[in-house]
Please model this.
Amino acid sequence: MFSYAKNKKKQVYYFRLDLCETDSLVKKLEADGFKVSNAID
Model:
């Protein structure tokens, strides 16, 4: 987890998962208000 230098309220989370379909996970995260910058299947 990293905070943005200019805005301490924003944080970046990195997840590493086993091989899986990420489409449904991305949709759920975005529905909960998170911004997903990159997801690789």
